Amino acid sequence: MAAVVHKLLHHDHHANREPPSQSSQTEPSNQSGQSNQPPPSPHERQDSAMDRARDEEKHAVAQWDEQRQPLEPGQIEQDRKWVGHSSRVLRQEDFELIKTLGTGTFARVWLVRLANAREGDQHKVFALKILRKVDVIRLKQVEHVRNERNVLGSVAGHPFITTMVASFQDHDSLYMLLDYCPGGEVFSYLRRARRFNEATSQFYAAEIVLILEFLHEKMGVAYRDLKPENILIDAEGHLKLVDFGFAKKVENRETYTLCGTPEYLAPEVIRNTGHGTAVDWWAFGILVYEFLVGQPPFWDQNPMKIYEQIVEGRVRFPSAMSSDARNLISGLCTVDTSKRLGNIKGGASAVKSHAWFQHIDWDALYHRRINGPIVPHLRGPADTRNFDEYEPESDQREPYSNDMAEKWDEFFRDF
Amino acid sequence: MSLPPDYSNEITALNREILKHQPSDTLQFCANFFSRRLESQRAEFLLSQQHSSSQGRGLAESTFPGSNPFSTSPSGGFATSHMQRLEEEEENDVVASPTAASFSPDAMDHAQSTPGEDTFGNFENFADSAKSFPRQPPGLGAMDAQSFPSNYNMNRRTSVSAESLNPASSINDNWTPPYHQKTNDQQARLKAGVAGNFLFSHLDDEQSTQVLGALQEKPIPTKGIKVIAQGDVGDYFYVVESGAFDIYVNPSGKLEAGPDGLGNKVGTVGPGGSFGELALMYNAPRAATVVSTQQSTLWALDRVTFRRILMESAFDRRRMYEGFLEEVSLLSSLTPYERSKIADALETKKYPPGTTIIREGDAGESFYILEAGEAEVYKRGVDKPVNRYKKGDYFGELALLNDAPRAASVTSTSDVIVATLGKDGFQRLLGPVEGIMRRNDPSKASALDADAVDPLAR
Ligand SMILES: Nc1ncnc2c1ncn2[C@@H]1O[C@H](COP(=O)(O)OP(=O)(O)OP(=O)(O)O)[C@@H](O)[C@H]1O
């Protein structure tokens, strides 16, 4: 079986694709030297070779779902892996939209099933995140969306990050095909349970530590929007981090754009002194606090008052909280980044060896050999009981005009 | 005839588990699997019941931060937060709850439970225990309504972001902040006006001067002018120079048409007051409407200018520090990543002329880079300075290595700014300096010889 999996994950890069001249488009990183000709809208082409390619691609996607297996950190970094590729052949019609799973400021995520698929592939479901180019432009999120696609593509295969199987686009929309996480958001479980007990919190926190370790130390990526709303539970009860809208490859340069979620913003983001991966460790401290207490440590009706509390950085703990948990949270939620746990010497491994995590077998955890505290009970792979109902999409949409396409499609060409 | 889908699902999941764990005792493994599944399904059922009883909260809608009440100016007084008062009363309370007094200590009882006991059911493996009995579902016992902080917003929270900013110097763009002339009086009043605002209290002198310079006068010719409207996007922060304004909040979250569209008057702002500071962070809907009650004058500052001033100076300072650090021979083997960490940790200090920054014979604790100004080096028994330091020179770096006494004194001859870092701080970030020096070149260890690296000894 391992061989099959290998073949699947490292699928020949050029198979199922357009002729070689186009296929280099699938590697966003070596784009810059390319000719300035935009691709001849391959998504609008109609011919039988194309149909065959689409059919192949759909089958490959279904096969991926069949075999899904996490990659080792070393494998994820390979640039020629198949998962996370930009597909020049898939289209929205290849998917039947079943139900809205969630909406963001400018995206809608659908539960989808493969349409017109081969025998045996017909029941494969995925989450399809659809972004309208008009909205992305209007909300000035072009750069964030490009970052999201590129980061998700490069991290695809990590056991606790939602896998972007492929991305594609058509005239007015961008699509990211994601593995469906039927358990819904950790947020919903947390709000229903009010707070998680220590063991549950430790388990989820530990999986997050592995994500941050990987993103920061292997990929040089800051995630920048950690919160229970962005953490989903998969069919086996493990976490999947979603929404990489603010993720950015920062490496050793600091960055300045304010982004995140008010209660989770790190002090250096508020003060605009430049920030890096250390913001995720701050947010991680807030997250652990929220798991254990049921609400984040800094809160006020008025957001400015939240920020004032954050830059002051005085965390108050309920008396019942264990001293290990307090110690961990205090270490993480330290205003001075040169003293913040996770950012100081040792990086993520200093967090992993903290007493609060002493019961965690980190290797077993990475390989998903430890059972999570909540395993969703599902009627079938397309069960959406863990998701809320959303308003249908409004019909009145601003069109993506040719003028806009001329101006902006250049920016979306890697998608 | 086909098997029920529920069943197929369970079996598929079981198959996966079997493949993954390759158990030796298959039957026991399957039995454990099913009892775990049962437990988790029951727990989930109870949770969903709990959920439906609190449906009204509307988990799917997100109102934060748009609907947040608005508050600010010292003279406003309309946002005396209920919660703040509670918090003060609670200050000495042993319960020490996070932000709400209503947080009862026993609501936290589950936080202390040991792993393996009372969790979301199938946690046994995690806790490394072989037990696998259905137990009371998670934390449900702790969910009495009273214990819950009533004021916390339980909805999904929306992400926020400001426009993306790239430092001018990184893209060879020459940007200088806008400057609007002000009299000394005006300048002083403005300074006082923003003093209480934490966004301004962290600024250094240069940033502060630039920010105050960038505030632009905005005359409000008459009464009845809506400077900001609740629900609108906000880009400007305002300080009142003269005149007066009323503040209204419409409970609907938005300014409406018609005579009552303003909503309720919640306060007033007069000279020295300010409003709209959230706009300096990101583009959030205004939380109130502000209307002039007479002819007035405002000072306005927009977000992009404000954030850019902060960013440009932070960026330049970092690059300057990284540049200085590259020159420090003791630290020559730092990677760019490590250097940027150290640059981030450097602390700025200022000294007037004639200050002895380090003193010969004292135990060395910190290392210094001269960022601006000049200093002289003295040794006991020598009348004249043995050396002079100017911008970019560094001293005292041996303190990072050992506690040896300072080999000389350094005294400022002008106003100076230094960037400094202690041995503790350095080790916290990167570990002992010896290790860093040795890792590229074991022979570097000989550089530990003070004469070779300490400019003080030169
Ligand atoms: N792979 C997935 N499986 C199941 N549900 C998903 C998946 N990805 C996203 N969702 C659901 O859709 C919601 C919105 O997705 P996402 O956060 O990626 O969109 P967004 O527009 O970037 O959101 P926001 O504006 O809040 O940042 C998620 O919170 C989640 O509930």
Automatic annotation (TrEMBL), chain A:
Keywords: ATP-binding, Kinase, Nucleotide-binding, Serine/threonine-protein kinase, Transferase
Catalytic activity: L-seryl-[protein] + ATP = O-phospho-L-seryl-[protein] + ADP + H(+); L-threonyl-[protein] + ATP = O-phospho-L-threonyl-[protein] + ADP + H(+)
Alphabetized InterPro entries for the sequence: AGC-kinase_C, Kinase-like_dom_sf, Prot_kinase_dom, Protein_kinase_ATP_BS, Ser/Thr_kinase_AS
Matches recorded under CDD domains: STKc_PKA_like
EC numbers on record: 2.7.11.11
Enzyme class, UniProt record, top EC level: transferase
Binding-site residues, ATP: K129
UniProt-recorded Gene Ontology molecular function terms: ATP binding; cAMP-dependent protein kinase activity
SMART domains: S_TK_X, S_TKc
Stretch list, region Disordered: 1-80, 381-401
Domain AGC-kinase C-terminal: 358-415
Domain of life from the UniProt record: Eukaryota
Lipid metabolism as UniProt keyword: no
Record field: compositional bias (Low complexity): 19-36
GO CC list: cAMP-dependent protein kinase complex; cytosol
PANTHER family linked: CAMP-DEPENDENT PROTEIN KINASE CATALYTIC SUBUNIT PRKX, CYCLIC NUCLEOTIDE-DEPENDENT PROTEIN KINASE
Family as reported in the entry's similarity comment: Belongs to the protein kinase superfamily.
Name recorded for this polypeptide: cAMP-dependent protein kinase
Species this chain originates from: Massariosphaeria phaeospora
From TrEMBL, chain B:
UniProt xrefs under Gene3D superfamilies: cAMP-dependent protein kinase regulatory subunit, dimerization-anchoring domain, Jelly Rolls
Gene Ontology CC terms, in alphabetical order: cAMP-dependent protein kinase complex; cytosol; nucleus
Superkingdom as given in the UniProt entry: Eukaryota
Similarity-based family: Belongs to the cAMP-dependent kinase regulatory chain family.
Binding site for 3',5'-cyclic AMP 2: E397, R406
Protein name: cAMP-dependent protein kinase regulatory subunit
Region (Disordered): 49-153
Binding site for 3',5'-cyclic AMP 1: E277, R286
GO molecular function, one term: cAMP-dependent protein kinase inhibitor activity
Organism name: Massariosphaeria phaeospora
GO biological process: cellular response to starvation
SUPFAM superfamilies listed in its UniProt record: cAMP-binding domain-like (SSF51206), Dimerization-anchoring domain of cAMP-dependent PK regulatory subunit (SSF47391)
One Pfam entry name: RIIa
Keyword flag Zinc: no
Span of domain Cyclic nucleotide-binding: 199-327, 330-447
Subunit text: Tetramer, composed of 2 regulatory (R) and 2 catalytic (C) subunits. In the presence of cAMP it dissociates into 2 active monomeric C subunits and an R dimer.
Polar residues compositional bias, start-end: 64-75
CDD domains referenced in this protein's UniProt entry, alphabetically: CAP_ED, DD_R_ScPKA-like
Keyword line: cAMP, cAMP-binding, Nucleotide-binding, Phosphoprotein, Repeat
